[in-house]
User: What shape does this take?
Amino acid sequence: MTENILQVIPGGVTAPKGFMASGVAAGLKKNNKVDLALLLSETPAAAAGVYTTNLVQAAPLVLTRQRVAEGLARAVIINAGNANACTGSRGLQDAIASSRAVATALAIPEEQVLVASTGVIGVPLPVEKIVDAVPRAVEALAKENHMAASQAIMTTDLVPKEVAVQVQLGETLVTLGGMAKGSGMIHPNMATMLAFITTDAVISHGVLQQALKQAVDSSFNMITVDGDTSTNDMLLALANGQAGNPEILPETEAYQLFYQGLLEVCSALAKMIARDGEGATRLIEVTVNGALTLQDGQKAARSVAGSNLFKAAVFGKDANWGRILCAVGYSGATFDPSTVDIFIGEVQVAQDGAALEFDEEKAAVMLSQDPVTVLVDLKSGASSATAWGCDLTYDYVRINGSYRT
Assistant: This one.
């Protein structure tokens, strides 16, 4: 990837041609905050999705998964404040009612409306509030309202999360944009996160699905905040083809360039989620080099990023490198413990699996940086992987001790 091929631009989820968004207050959150987002493609778009691995899955996810499998979508309606999860048969009917309201207001096929929800689990969705707010959401649809949409999907997030990039595919400039929410219940294999990616590229449902799954494995599935994986996690991608490029096919240069753009969007949003972990003060970036296989590197990196003991040490600025090596040891990765080198920022804290004398004050400075970077060299092979997490603070317990109340 080079700078003249990929460029970061403003505009978020509506940066690609033919997309509009809105965010309005439906009354699902307290204090009349925006809590209902609507995303629309002017023309039918190829759709792809990746979903939580949790066996307990929310009604909107079940409905959306069925519709994405058909390959086309026009709109996505997303509500915050209520997850519509563990709500029985009523939950599915409420998700359908939300999509029907959008389809009616926009005069589009109901099966091309996708639904996503986030918020408290086990509480019936006040769907009448959503239905009443849909006409206002439709009226507010505009290219410039991408930020309102990204704000509307937030729960405990402190900041909205959006990004957009452009990729040159031969003679055609293709744009990808995205928005996401996520702060707690974040762990590999998707995690309380919703993410929505748009592109004006010409690409089929099947090829988009292939690229999305590949990008997720190196981005969203490499972040962790607290080890919990939610019932509502989903990542949806829509490609409406308005850029007019020759169709992107697998195993071509165009596919690789498009994939790099998609990976950039996914990675940027994933890091924003990890950085905004509930109560977090610093992002943690763990890189594992010298792994025997990519899978070994991913296991080791995720294990360190997810270690509660190491996350707490980062919060306390304590260079307790033994917690890093311990986490690598129980990760399931294959390696020789007697060859491992560990660095915290610029400071090497272990060599060949054993202690080094190092400057504790300088290490504490490295642990004060944002992000805190950790390098683990297994010296067992040629593969590398990176994972992201955040420190574990007192505020995490405070926030989750009163999430419903």
